[in-house]
Amino acid sequence: MEILKPGSIKLDFLESIFRNKAKLTMELSLKGKIEKSAKIVEASTKGSLPVYGVNTGFGKLANKIIPEEDREQLQKNLVLSHCSGIGEPLPEDVTRLMMILKMISLSFGASGVKWSTINQIEKIINSGIIPEIPHQGSVGASGDLAPLAHMAAVMIGEGWAFYNGEKLTGREALQKVKIDPIVLGPKEGLALLNGTQFSTACALANLFNGWRSVLNSIVISSLSTDAIMGSTSPLNSKIHSLRGHKGQIFVAKKMRELMAGSIIRDSHIEGDQRVQDPYCIRCQPQVLGASLDVLKHAAITIEIEANAVTDNPLVLVDEEMIVSGGNFHAEPIGFAADQIALSLAEMGSISQRRIALMVDPTLSHDLPAFLTDNPGLNSGFMIAEVTSAALMSENKHLANPCVTDSTPTSANQEDHVSMAAHGAYRLFKMNRNLSSIFGIELLCAAQGIDARDPLKTSTLLQKVVSSLRKHIPRLKDDRYMATDINKVTNMIEDKYIIKEAELNIPFSVFLNS
Question: Please, are residues 297 and 111 in contact by the beta-carbon 8 Å criterion?
């Protein structure tokens, strides 16, 4: 049982609970402050002053006072009316992460919800119920209202959910695991809906996958360098220390370690007539390192947001005040998502150039044209390279900034929004595209390494090639290529390659370096 301790939760812990389905619970010491916060909200309902979302309408309707007898219905209506999302459901692991982030945010005791309400989220998570969260409908300000409403709906026995692969109504899903729907108290519906947890969960998942992509790129580009018999002089540690960027230093170091002992490399260190390799080989530490540094900046923002209170209004327990603010505005996550998008696009861009290099006989240092034994009769990797170019171009398009694309909503009350939700969600497609680009590069690099036989690459890199060949044989004559590409893409996303290269290390190794 993992214990959530808001305010000090690190990325490694978040990735662990994202990747694994361990049960979790809240830190009990938080209960007192949470209940005091709820009592302050309850007390505010007895006064005559308007308190947003407690005895008033919402958004542009904030000046409309709601009679006391209708305030319970107010919270339920809020949830139901805001269940306006559309599109494919959020992946189950990301939905679970979103719910955990909502628990963390509410547990600071600044949202005015009861302990039992947070406990309802905990019970749903631990029971294996997954609310159906349509991925479209949030503009990333005033909170991720629609996605979080679909989560809250299941808590009160409404909406839809998945349980053991079956789609059920929220009430049916709760009945399956003997959980009673809750009745929302003052402000509780608003507290559940306000917040950046959808955007943050999507950004977090893709940050973790972005780190995985960095490690895959280090391994695969090292293979590509050996496949074209590229120079490793540009990996010299002094070159990178003279510039000082940590990402660049890290990438070069790991490439040196992976390529150490390569017979292919050693065979042409002396006597090679080429003065310099193309940038996609020579500048991999600089480009991938810069992409890694961008991920680090995004990680700092996202970790803070994962430990943040992001609803409105907030209850200041020590002052016994309820104050309106704008912490629901997901501008930090919007910027972080755009940074991640740029990083993913650039990783794919330089990878694609290495693919093009390897299939081009005028550039690949005597590798056969399109990496096939009998070019002409066989096309080899000709169209696989074209596919990589298509994916690279799509990722460049998807990398256009989202955070600058504000539009007024809610009768101009919410007149500047972050667009963080779809800015973060588009990263799933970008990461998948990137894995396929890397997969094509890996197939080409392994084909190139095989063509150098009897010369061998390093022990670690040869292990990668040998392991790949257990699943995907060397291309001799043309065959149905999509099967190979899909298979290697899945291997890359399952961390198969970086595990074989003994490079499956946590992000914190770099973040703390």
Answer: no
DSSP state for residue 181 in the 8-state scheme: P
CA distance 209 to 296: 13
The pTM of this model reads 0.95
The tokens 């240092």 sit on which residue?
365
Taken in order 93, 179, 105, 424, is the CA torsion positive or negative? positive
Cis peptide before 454 (omega within 30 of 0): yes
Query: In this structure, what are the phi and psi dihedrals at residue 245, rounded to the nearest 5 degrees?
Result: -75, 130
For residues 58 and 380, what is the distance between their CA atoms, to the nearest angstrom?
A: 61
Q: Annotate 473-511 with DSSP letters as a single string.
A: ----S---HHHHHHHHHHHHHTTHHHHHTT----HHHHH
Residue 414, amino acid: E
Residues serving a catalytic function are 52
Is 336 within 8 Å of 210 (Cβ atoms)? no
From first to last of the 513 residues of the chain, give the pLDDT tens digit: 889 988 889 999 999 999 988 889 999 999 999 999 999 999 888 877 888 878 887 777 877 888 878 888 989 999 999 999 999 999 999 999 999 999 999 999 999 999 999 999 999 999 999 999 999 999 999 889 999 999 999 999 999 999 999 999 999 999 999 999 999 999 999 999 999 999 999 999 999 999 999 999 999 999 999 999 999 999 999 999 999 999 999 999 999 999 999 998 877 666 555 668 999 999 999 999 999 999 999 999 999 999 999 999 999 999 999 999 999 999 999 999 999 999 999 999 999 999 999 999 988 878 999 999 999 999 999 999 999 999 999 999 999 999 998 888 887 777 789 999 999 999 999 999 999 999 999 999 999 999 999 999 999 999 999 999 999 999 999 999 999 999 999 999 999 999 999 999 999 999 998
**Where would I find the H helices in 128-245?**
145-155, 170-176, 188-193, 197-227, 237-243
Interatomic CA distance for residues 8 and 269, integer angstroms: 49
365 is written with which tokens? 């240092």
What residues contact 419, with CB distance under 8 A and at least 6 apart?
139, 140, 334, 402, 403, 405, 406
Cα torsion angle, 90, 80, 84, 111, sign: negative
